[in-house]
Amino acid sequence: MRFLIDFFPIALFVAAYKLGDIYTATGVLMVATLLQTGLIYAIDRKLQTLQKVTLVLVIVFGALTLALHDERFIKWKPTVLYASMAIVLAAALWVWKKNFLQILLGSQLSLPEAVWARLTVMWVAYFLFMAAINAYVAAYYSTEDWVNFKLWGYAFPVVFIVGQGLYISKYLKSDGEAGTGSS
């Protein structure tokens, strides 16, 4: 169910683009992201930082796209989001000596410190990869190709998250406590 909630703004964006143009699709994305955020808040009674940042970036970059009638803003929004997340996670880990993943998920998941550190590095690398690939497609391909990439590019996070699950599974016991797998 959560995957559908996460996926529906992109699906509506692609559908609106196919039926209209990038500007119609941008408006649909803005409304769909507002609805998605409201739905998540109604279910969880809170919003994660990433959800708040995503909403703000969609609204700001979407508004710039529509006001200036320039599709580059909406096409570069994912690059800004992913690069920002990588910078924040990396700075927290290596500069401030804080592990934001552990702070956010530590109450739900008990893992050794070294595993949390590796997970954070993996997330930094993933966010940098996603920022780079979006930047490449946005810069060198047509808007049609970029929109198609947004739809089919959902394979990247799915594969990454499944890989993360497989990686941490050896550190978890069936009762949810941290396992003793080698770190």
Quote the distance from N terminus to C terminus. Answer: 33 Å
The main sheet comes to: none
- State the domain count: 2
Shape: globular
Number of strands: 0
User: Which quaternary structure do these chains form?
Assistant: single chain
Helical fraction equals over 70%
**Strand residue content:** under 5%
Low-confidence runs of at least 5 consecutive residues: none
Tell me about this structure:
The chain folds into 2 domains: 1-69; 71-183, no CATH class. Helix content is 78%, strand content 0%. The protein has 8 helices and no strands. Helix 2 runs antiparallel to helix 3, helix 3 packs antiparallel against helix 4 and helix 4 (72-94) packs antiparallel against helix 6 (113-140). 24% of the residues are buried.
Report a brief summary of the structure:
This protein is mainly alpha-helical.
Task: Provide the fold topology.
Blueprint lengths: L1 H18 L2 H23 L4 H20 L3 H23 L5 H6 L7 H28 L2 H10 L2 H15 L14
Helix pairs in contact: 1-2, 1-7, 2-3, 3-4, 4-6, 6-8
Top keywords for this entry?
2 domains, globular, 183 residues, 78% helix, single chain, mainly alpha
